[in-house]
Automatic annotation (TrEMBL):
<keyword id="KW-0436">Ligase</keyword>
<dbReference type="GO" id="GO:0015937">
    <property type="term" value="P:coenzyme A biosynthetic process"/>
</dbReference>
<dbReference type="InterPro" id="IPR035929">
    <property type="entry name" value="CoaB-like_sf"/>
</dbReference>
<dbReference type="GO" id="GO:0016874">
    <property type="term" value="F:ligase activity"/>
</dbReference>
<feature type="region of interest" description="Disordered">
    <location>
        <begin position="1"/>
        <end position="27"/>
    </location>
</feature>
<dbReference type="Pfam" id="PF04127">
    <property type="entry name" value="DFP"/>
</dbReference>
<feature type="region of interest" description="Disordered">
    <location>
        <begin position="288"/>
        <end position="309"/>
    </location>
</feature>
<feature type="domain" description="DNA/pantothenate metabolism flavoprotein C-terminal">
    <location>
        <begin position="176"/>
        <end position="276"/>
    </location>
</feature>
<dbReference type="InterPro" id="IPR007085">
    <property type="entry name" value="DNA/pantothenate-metab_flavo_C"/>
</dbReference>
<protein>
    <submittedName>
        <fullName>Phosphopantothenate-cysteine ligase</fullName>
    </submittedName>
</protein>
<feature type="compositionally biased region" description="Basic and acidic residues">
    <location>
        <begin position="289"/>
        <end position="300"/>
    </location>
</feature>
<comment type="similarity">
    <text>Belongs to the PPC synthetase family.</text>
</comment>
<feature type="compositionally biased region" description="Polar residues">
    <location>
        <begin position="1"/>
        <end position="20"/>
    </location>
</feature>
Amino acid sequence: MSASSSSQPFSTESYFQTQRPPAGLKEKSEKMHQFVEKWKAVNGKKVVLVTSGGTTVPLESNTVRFLDNFSAGTRGATSAEYFLSQGYAVIFLHRLHSLRPFSRHYSHSLNPFLDLLSIVPSSSGSSSSIVVSPDHTKSLLPILQAYHEAQSSGSLLSVEFQTVNDYLWLLKAVTASMASLGRRGMFYLAAAVSDFFLPEERVAEHKIQSLQGTLSLEMDQVPKVLKPLVQEWTPEGYIVSFKLETDTQLLIPKSRAALSRYGHQLVIGNELHRRKYEVVFVERNSMSKPEKGTGDDRIKGTATPPIMESGESEKLDVAGLEQKEEYKETWLRLDDLKDEGGKGRDGEVEIEELIIKELLDRHQRWIDARE
Ligand code: PMT
């Protein structure tokens, strides 16, 4: 199939037919499969896939330059910790070198680990030793305990991706394994996935030379894998996607549009600058999942999506969605917590703790609705 941008856009199917799987896919998929099988055998154990960090789009196959997507991986790494504390087994599918559960508290920029340590000088010929400074011990102790608990129980599996191609192949593979969990599986898709990519036959082999003057790039749209994920790969999974916007006005209509289009359970909307302090849960009033392929039709009675995803059309037809009473929104705000005597945004509560608390209940109801 031709993959130029002047031809048909890639469907999910044609993407996987034409773009090669990344090196190491087999081994990583097998690890994730074994992890799922292990926890599937434990009665009632819930498993969550947390995707985290941005994806890259290499411009050269011997890669010197690449395009990147914004994300430090804070949302994913923090959420993974709270899922673990609530008894979930967690597959943490994350961008290479982005923040990770537990170690995120000691990132080199915010809290360099060398600053935690003190040297105890040698006494009578023995060598000096190193201890954690007493003022850091109190905060480190619970983190270390939770980390050791995750290590010894084997309830956290971390798998890395770098490019958008790695991400898509790994997502497909892990979803195939998790589908067998039925409703016990949750998908928490917090990664910032590139909307555009360069098909492999248009990627330069060697470093692009500056001698050629200006550089023009024509990129293809990455197929929205959320659709097959929801409708084919794991019809029973509890699926949470994120919607990032810089214009708050768009958060709710675009989140509703995503629910309508893909037919999954929940969209968590977040605005770039306030994402650490407030998020909005957008969901249907009833727990039911729309029948296959009916997502768009539910809004307008046509197959035309009311709000297109980026790259498809910028025209927003919000009216049909705003009048619908079938959606509800729940805002979670750290400021609200402060007003009620809680710790608020300057205290120790993280918004992910509130998000995961809300999700526990929803996931359990999703499981119970089946039985
Ligand atoms: O890591 P931090 O710095 O803490 O930032 C966290 C975050 C802001 C990145 C996170 O909270 C967030 O909003 N992540 C999703 C951002 C995003 O990629 O949104 P999107 O509109 O491009 O995609 C929406 C959903 O569609 C995503 O859940 C994604 O998994 C899915 N998608 C995206 C592209 C694609 N080709 N297929 C998809 O299915």
